[in-house]
Structure formats: structure tokens, C-alpha cells
Automatic annotation (TrEMBL):
Swiss-Prot/TrEMBL GO biological process terms: adenosine 5'-(hexahydrogen pentaphosphate) catabolic process; diadenosine hexaphosphate catabolic process; diadenosine pentaphosphate catabolic process; diphosphoinositol polyphosphate metabolic process
Species, as recorded: Dioszegia hungarica
Source lineage: Eukaryota, Fungi, Dikarya, Basidiomycota, Agaricomycotina
Location of the Nudix hydrolase domain: 9-147
Pfam families linked: NUDIX (PF00293)
PROSITE patterns: NUDIX (PS51462), NUDIX_BOX (PS00893)
Classification via Gene3D superfamilies: Nucleoside Triphosphate Pyrophosphohydrolase
Top-level taxon of the source organism: Eukaryota
Name of this protein: NUDIX hydrolase domain-like protein
Keywords carried by this UniProt record: Hydrolase, Metal-binding
Assigned GO CC terms: cytoplasm; nucleus
A single MF term (Gene Ontology): metal ion binding
Amino acid sequence: MGADKCDKPQREVAVSIIYDQSTSRILMVTRRKHPKIWILPQGGVEPGESSGQAAIRESWEEAGCPRHLDPPPKLLSLDLEPEASKRYNVYWHIHVIHTTEDAVNSTTDWPERGERDRAWFSVPDAITKICEWYIDEKPVASPDTMEDVGALAAKMEKKSAKRSLKGGAMETALKAFIEDQAGATRGGLAVKAS
């Protein structure tokens, strides 16, 4: 049986919604191990660092977002409620980083440049990309034996739970962003097709 939630150490993660208000588009990056999967830049908050500072650092490292920006305020925090067997309680702190496509695209070298792709998406397309990742449940290989079927089913169930947790959190973050922008502009978020 796993440890009680309060007995586990916390893992704080900063997640960045990098937004260009002039184009109404969001910058996303691919996962390193899965280059066809698009996600929001994210990473652990280091000791002595605020989640806003971590959001700027991770956005620079993963996407080449300008490093000189002030740490953005937190849009929301999400408790990812890990399964009992996990070592950490994971908390995502969502930050909106306002910049321009030109400022980001003029950066030609950043730490993870050769490890990820980056691209700008309309808000609806960003949500679609995230949903494609966590809702798509295609097995990677065909099982040869009944034992393989059981192993594959267990693996897919674990992957599905992890994808649902993280993908659902990213979708929640983008929906909160839409609501926040709608409140800020009173007329709703103007989205442009990509």
C-alpha cells in the first residue's frame, strides 16, 4: 500500500502558456521522447525559485522564449492527485507569459533547440493538440501471446491514467486561460484560425 498523500514530498511544476495577444496564438513544444506530441512548456521549480521564475526559465530552455521577462503571476494551481504508488504529490502552477511571436522566433539558439520542435497554435488548435495526445490510446505493438495481451493492457492502462492526468490538467489550464482572457476583454477571447 502506498504512503498517505500528506506523507509524500511535494513536486512543484511550473507550466507556461506562452501567448501572443496580437495573433491570439499559443506557443507549444513537442515532447522530447515523443516528437509528434505537442504540450505546454513545463518543468520542476528549483530550490529558491518561485513558480513564475521557473515558468520563465522552462520557457527559455524548452521553447526559446525570451529570458529577460518578469516572472508572470500565477493563473491557477492544480493538484494532480497522483495514484497511491507515486513518490510525490505533484502541484502544477500555471502561468501566462505574454510575449510576441517575433520575439520568440528571433531566438535561434536555446538549450533544448535540437531536442524539441516549437510552433504557434490558435487556442482551439492548442486544446485539440493536447486532447489528441491524452485521448488517443493506440497500442504501439501487437501482442503475440495471451501473456503479452495482459502485459500490454496493463501498460496501456498506466499510460492512459498518466496521459489523462497530465493532458486533462493542460486542457483545464487552457480553459482557465480562455475564461481569464474573456473576463479581461469583456467581449471574450478573439481567436484566429492558424
